[in-house]
Design a protein that fits this description.
Largest sheet of chain B: 2 strands, antiparallel
CATH architecture of the largest domain in chain B: Orthogonal Bundle
Strand order of the largest sheet of chain B: 1-2
CATH superfamily of the largest domain in chain B: MetI-like
Order of helices and strands of chain B: HHHHEEHHHHHHHHHHHH
Helix content of chain A: over 70%
CATH class of the domain at 84-208 in chain A: Mainly Alpha
CATH superfamily of the domain at 84-208 in chain A: MetI-like
Shape of chain B: globular
Structural class of chain B: mainly alpha
Largest sheet of chain A: none
Oligomer: heterodimer
Strand content of chain A: under 5%
Order of helices and strands of chain A: HHHHHHHHHHHHHHH
Largest interface: A-B, 103 and 115 residues
Distance between the termini of chain B: 55 Å
Number of domains of chain B: 2
CATH class of the largest domain in chain B: Mainly Alpha
Strand content of chain B: under 5%
CATH architecture of the domain at 84-208 in chain A: Orthogonal Bundle
Shape of chain A: globular
Radius of gyration of chain B: 26 Å
CATH topology of the domain at 84-208 in chain A: MetI-like fold
Distance between the termini of chain A: 24 Å
């Protein structure tokens, strides 16, 4: 409860709801309005969109925009490319970050502090600084203009290792020690005992990785040149440039690009917000 | 992972009987290196190698095709007398100077309003935050449509209330400020949820005690709420500054640096130089100038933290 709301209840208020609704409802609507408009226009025909003044609530719904986008051979391909790149990043981050984070959290070995420190230091290096040589490295590896170029640099993240390590450290050691005495290897302990306990942290990592990779435009723009290897974000911006007047199709494409992250967000809203805020507030 | 399992077990077994040479060299758990090796190679390899490479490139005149020529600090000197780079820096600074304070202050104001238990509050919070998860590309495409001078909803609305039509992203005098607006729509939500989380961490007893003491709302805000938000405030200022300095996707998806270069920010300039004009050396030098600014801000914040801690320790000792 906010201190600011203290006293509001005591004053005489003629309406049966809090006066804050009069401020908050328009505010929330202002944030939602562009998205509502996006959704509505994606179901309009181009004639309805180009009418002046524009139709706000359409008199009929059309799926011509979606039909156009989905029958365009490339758009489904871009969707698939984005799914492949994002899925690879999520799976590989879960595996590699778990392994490294467990070693940093539970095992003492020479160089651990130095390596961990160096990894944390990479978090402040802006991507713009490394993107030109990263392009050259990918070219040397023969991966440029393939999905591999999008997958390899994002296989693991220092942030993910840091996030999981913090969580692993907070887990009680007793279970792990018991399993060790029973003869389990470190890897078995990690897979059978630690990871099941760490589900909230793993979900957080999965969601944040998915969001970052799915939404990225800069790196695909640099690394990919053939349109059959575009991701959705890159395809969408190109598509818009080529179809300036086909707004219904462009908006349908925009909806399809946003829908997966929107669904992921709505499904995991609580985890999502907690993971974004915890490092900011506590760290 | 499947391949690592027997190897790890064997390594652990080998190290178990006596403090072998391996243990002396690698520490108590030498097999730990197998756990961190892939990550270490990938993370350090994709950070420090390109960082050093970019520095070497910045000292060369290189188009990545013909043999490069060493020019020392020539690229940096040329940058500082390049009016286009000067404009790019200016655009970035204008964007940052508007976006950072507005998103942080706006985020705080909205968070204070949303920090109450009334009906629909969950829906309000979700709606304010949802634009943040939309990609900059999707935001840019959407706003190019809404702000289209001819067909857009924005000009239709202006017509409706009798205000002259605007060029928005196609007007060189407005485009950068329109980008600030879109950036705020998509970026305020992050500040809001961070502030909300911090507000909920303020102990209730503190607020109740203030209320019992008869503190007015304004006094409570100034004397209790704002001071306890200070660490989060600093974090958000630094974080949003990094976001603003690195602006690119939104520019690419809307104005592509135009019209007439009005929205060419530093990263867009780097992109153009390196990947459209193939001036890899010159582009790397521009990227280094930006990176140094970011390192300076990050380092400055760390330094301020250390100094503050020292001062606090001294105060406790005295």
């Amino acid at each position: 409860m906010s201190a600011l709301s203290v006293g509001v209840g005591r004053r005489r208020w003629p309406l049966p709801f809090s006066p804050w609704h009069l401020v908050l409802a328009p505010l929330a609507l202002a944030f939602a309005a562009p998205l509502i408009w996006l959704f509505l226009t994606s179901f309009m025909s181009n004639a309805q969109i180009n009418r002046f003044p524009p139709t706000i609530i359409p008199d009929s719904f059309h799926t011509t925009g979606y039909d156009y986008v989905l029958s365009n051979a490339l758009f489904p391909r871009w969707f698939l490319n984005s799914v492949i790149v994002a899925a690879a990043a999520v799976v590989s981050n879960l595996v590699l970050c778990s392994l490294a984070a467990y070693a940093f959290a539970r095992m003492r070995f020479r160089g651990s502090n130095v390596v961990f420190g160096l990894m944390l230091a990479t978090l402040v290096i802006p991507f713009q600084l490394t993107m030109i040589p990263t392009f050259l490295i990918m070219k040397e590896l023969g991966l440029i203009d393939s999905l591999g170029a999008l997958i390899v640099p994002g296989l693991v993240s220092a942030f993910g290792i840091f996030l999981l390590r913090q969580f692993f450290v907070s887990l009680p050691r007793e279970l792990e020690e018991a399993a060790r005495i029973d003869g389990c290897s470190r890897l078995t302990v990690l897979v059978k005992i630690v990871l099941p306990l760490a589900r909230p942290a793993l979900t957080t990592l999965a969601v944040l990785t998915f969001l970052t990779v799915w939404n990225d435009l800069t790196w695909p723009l640099i690394a990919i040149s053939s349109d059959e290897n575009y991701t959705l974000q890159l395809g969408l911006t190109t598509f818009q440039g080529q179809h300036r007047t086909e707004w219904a199709a462009v908006m349908a494409g925009d909806v399809l690009t946003t829908l997966p992250v929107l669904i992921a967000f709505l499904l995991a809203q609580r985890t999502f917000i907690q993971s974004l805020t915890s490092s900011a507030v506590k760290g | 992972m499947a391949a690592a399992a027997p190897v790890a077990r064997r390594a652990a077994a080998a190290a178990a009987p006596a403090p072998s040479w391996r243990r002396r060299v690698f520490g108590e758990h030498p097999s730990a290196w197998l756990f961190i090796l892939p990550s270490t190679i990938l993370i350090l390899g994709f950070a420090f190698v390109p960082m050093a490479w970019a520095f070497l490139l910045s000292l060369q005149r290189s188009d990545l095709v013909t043999p490069a020529e060493w020019v020392g600090l020539g690229n940096y000197k040329a940058l500082f007398s390049d009016p286009t780079f000067g404009d790019a820096v200016e655009h970035t600074l204008i964007y940052t100077a508007l976006f950072v304070p507005l998103s942080v202050a706006g985020g705080l104001a909205i968070a204070l309003m949303l920090n109450r238990r009334i009906r629909f509050i969950g829906i309000y919070r979700t709606l304010v935050f949802v634009p943040f998860i939309m990609s900059a590309a999707a935001q840019g495409v959407l706003f190019s449509f809404i702000l289209d001078p001819q067909y857009g909803l924005a000009n239709a609305a202006l017509d409706g209330v009798g205000i002259a039509r605007q060029g928005f992203l196609q007007d060189p005098g407005q485009a950068l400020y329109v980008l600030v607006g879109i950036g705020l729509w998509g970026g305020v939500g992050f500040c809001v949820i961070v502030f909300l989380a911090a507000l909920q961490d303020i102990p209730r007893e503190l607020l109740e005690a203030a209320a019992i003491d008869g503190a007015r709302r304004w006094a409570t805000l100034r004397k209790i709420i704002l001071p306890s938000l200070k660490p989060v405030l600093t974090f958000l200022f630094v974080w949003q500054t990094f976001q603003a300095l690195q602006l690119f996707d939104l520019v690419y998806a809307t104005s592509r640096g135009g019209p007439l270069g009005a929205t060419t920010v530093v990263v867009y300039y780097v992109y153009e130089q390196a990947f459209q004009f193939f001036h890899a050396g010159y582009g790397s030098a521009a990227a280094y100038v930006l990176a140094l600014a970011i390192f300076a801000i990050g380092g400055g914040q760390q330094l301020a933290r250390v100094i503050k801690r020292r001062r606090a320790e001294k105060a406790v000792a005295a």
